[in-house]
Amino acid sequence: MKKLLLLMVISIMTTAFGQEKIAVVSGNLGVLKGQTEVNVELKFDNVLLMKENITEAQYLENRKRDVLANPKKGEVEWQKWIAEWERYKKEEYVQSFAKGLNKSNKETAFKQAPSAKYTLVMDTKWLFPGWHGGLIIMTAQLSGSIKLVETTNPSVVLAEVELNKFDKFIQTKESVMEYGRIASVYESAGRYLGKEIRKSFK
Length: 202
Hints:
There is one protein chain. This protein is an alpha/beta fold. The chain has a single domain, classed as Rossmann fold, CATH 3.40.50. The chain is 43% helix and 30% strand. It has helices at 2-21, 56-69, 75-104, 178-200, and strands at 22-27, 37-43, 48-49, 54-55, 109-111, 118-128, 131-133, 136-138, 141-150, 153-166. The strands form 2 sheets. Strands 1, 2, 3, 4, 5, 6, 9 and 10 form an 8-stranded mixed β-sheet that branches. Strand 3 and strand 4 (54-55) form a beta hairpin. Helix 2 (56-69) crosses helix 3 (75-104) and helix 3 (75-104) packs parallel to helix 4 (178-200). It starts with a helix and ends with a helix.
């Protein structure tokens, strides 16, 4: 009985916490009902990082300095790291976001589909990449907005969702590296948004 009560308390806290971190601020996601596919895009322009709100360029400069200062790593490791960072930005983050959306919606395919009637645009404003310390992981955090727009006329915004330091965690094998943890938080945001979309169909 005590275990059941504890699970109920955790469930309530998790639900409230999730609502605080992600919220529909305008419009109606219900317009997606009946759509077989929805286009998904991700913006990573002018993003700020860390508690200090530094630019991506500053973050990468600091990261490069740390890697090169490690005698076990050096230039070769840095080139591998920056290549993965760019690949995740261009490919993995948007795919992770779509993966999360698809987890909650089986009737609609969320993917990079420019011919779809509607597009969900994830506009990233701020990121905290978290950290990995062996058995302990500090999850990444994400702030920004998600807009549902008409694909052929993006100025028509049908709904908008705000994320405020969203940090719901999904365990993945890539969580050791920053870009892996960031991908996880995009997937998690997709899952929560997918649930909101599903609820709006009722």
